[in-house]
Design brief:
By secondary structure, the chain is mainly α. The chain has helices at 2-8, 16-23, 27-38, 42-60, 65-71, 77-88, 92-104. It is built from seven helices and no strands.
């Protein structure tokens, strides 16, 4: 239920308090469930969801990096690029180039 809520709000910046209100649960319970099931906090999970969506957009080649940053609710392309690199180990540009290289092989 919470994961679906996050997916529905992937283009925004939700807070843990919004998730708590939506779920009717409490922060401690939600934190424990996410840590036990996903080995990360709920907000880390949400960031991973955003980056996975960004990777999908980059693979589909329908949007440029700036558009993807905007679509996912980032305040700026530089912040988006830093988060992308922290999670994937490469910049969005490097990721896109690696996808293109695989396609042309």
């Amino acid at each position: 239920m919470i994961v679906n809520y996050m997916l529905d709000h992937i283009s925004g910046n939700i807070t843990i308090d919004e998730i708590v209100r939506y779920s009717g649960s409490n922060k401690t319970t939600i934190a424990k469930v996410f840590r036990n099931n996903f080995d990360m906090s709920i907000m880390e999970y949400f960031i991973h969801m955003k980056i996975n969506t960004a990777k999908k957009y980059l693979r589909e080649d329908n949007y440029n990096i700036s558009q993807i940053s905007d679509l996912l609710g980032y305040s700026g392309i530089h912040y988006f690029s830093r988060q992308f690199k922290n999670i994937t180990g490469m910049s969005p540009t490097e990721y896109s180039a690696s996808i293109q290289a695989m396609i042309t092989k």
